[in-house]
């Protein structure tokens, strides 16, 4: 198959530091190439990929030092380029939310749109009612809840390259890990409270977006004075294996409808158990008592810190290998692409 993958332009593909969507697009592109498909990736020039790259911007928007820049203009320019080349592809797979809908209405039957974010925002439902012809893919079943009426083609969980992170059977760090982003919905304050009550050090590897700067300054920074808490900042992919693999557990104390939670499967790839609240996708990702514990309050989380030490880290990795590899993700998408094309061919025959 000839497949176009259209990535957001906010981060490199894969990101140099924090970033979820662009990371998944990178893994998917390489896995599809490995399966023998002809893949073209529309992304920034920094992309590292085995696909054919069409560079539509010199560098990722977030780390671009230019003081004035337009993310909307950059994405519209990219979509124009994709539209001009659309006839070269069997499937156009978008990862830019619904930005492409007006421009691709005429060929919606050859598009797949994976939605990576939360879908309970004001105005979204009305927009998806306006463009019901676009086939959508969710990254968890729970993510679909606000848009049950939409044209869902399937659910495909995220996946990582099998050789990206190795299983650490004997962690050396003796600490709890928090990895991701400092924001109210991610609840790093809960992570600190759990560490304090458990008496176990906490290492926080997370970025702070400008929108969350005040929250970090007024709520989180004062908590970092505790000698049990160490703030590392953003880390790269190369640092994740050691950071997660040597942790006693990953804390995922979220307070929002998480669409997927990539960090959970990154921890599982390292054999590291996950302690998480049952929000959004969490019950679909974490097998309670096998790959971690799903808890409902701080007391249960503190108890889980002791309990997860008994979990078999090789078994956690085995679950990752079975459910969350990039190869498994790519094969699921190929099945959906074929389903879409069969439906499109049948529709054309009926109208011929």
From TrEMBL:
Any coiled-coil regions, as ranges: none
Highest taxon above the source species: Bacteria
GO molecular function, one term: glycosyltransferase activity
Pfam family, one: Glycos_transf_1
InterPro entries per the UniProt record, alphabetical: Glyco_trans_1, Glyco_trans_4-like_N
Domain Glycosyltransferase subfamily 4-like N-terminal stretches: 18-130
Annotated Gene3D superfamilies: Glycogen Phosphorylase B
CDD domains associated with the record: GT4_AviGT4-like (cd03802)
Keywords: Transferase
Protein name: Glycosyltransferase family 4 protein
Taxonomic source organism: Agrilutibacter terrestris
Lineage: Bacteria, Pseudomonadati, Pseudomonadota, Gammaproteobacteria, Lysobacterales
């Amino acid at each position: 198959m000839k497949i176009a993958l259209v990535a957001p332009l906010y981060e490199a593909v894969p990101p140099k530091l924090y970033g979820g969507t662009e990371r998944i697009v990178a893994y998917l592109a390489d896995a599809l190439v490995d399966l023998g498909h002809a893949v073209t990736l529309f992304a920034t020039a920094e992309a590292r990929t085995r696909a054919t790259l069409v560079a539509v911007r010199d560098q990722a928007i977030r780390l671009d030092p230019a003081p004035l820049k337009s993310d909307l203009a950059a994405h519209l320019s990219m979509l124009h380029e994709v539209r001009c080349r659309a006839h070269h592809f069997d499937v156009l797979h978008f990862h830019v939310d619904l930005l492409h809908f007006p421009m691709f209405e005429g060929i919606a039957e050859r598009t797949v749109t994976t939605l990576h974010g939360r879908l309970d925002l004001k105005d979204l439902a009305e927009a998806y009612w306006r463009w019901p012809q676009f086939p959508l893919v969710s990254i968890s079943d729970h993510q679909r809840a606000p848009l049950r009426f939409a044209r869902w083609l399937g659910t495909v969980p995220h996946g990582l390259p099998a050789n990206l992170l190795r299983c650490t059977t004997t962690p050396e760090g003796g600490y709890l890990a928090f990895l991701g982003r400092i924001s109210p919905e991610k609840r790093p304050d809960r992570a600190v409270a759990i560490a304090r009550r458990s008496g176990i050090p906490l290492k926080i590897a997370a970025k702070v977006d400008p929108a969350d700067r005040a929250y970090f300054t007024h709520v989180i920074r004062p908590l970092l004075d505790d000698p049990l808490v160490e703030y590392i900042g953003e880390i790269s992919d190369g640092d994740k294996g050691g950071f997660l693999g040597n942790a006693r557990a990953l804390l995922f104390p979220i307070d929002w409808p998480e669409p997927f939670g990539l960090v959970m499967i990154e921890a599982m790839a390292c054999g590291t158990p996950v302690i998480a609240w049952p929000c959004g996708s969490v019950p679909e990702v974490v097998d309670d008592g096998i790959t971690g514990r799903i808890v409902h309050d701080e007391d249960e989380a503190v108890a889980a810190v002791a309990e997860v030490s008994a979990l078999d880290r090789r078994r956690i990795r085995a679950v990752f290998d079975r459910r969350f590899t990039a190869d498994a993700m790519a094969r699921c998408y190929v099945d959906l692409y074929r389903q879409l094309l069969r439906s499109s061919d049948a529709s054309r025959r009926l109208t011929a």
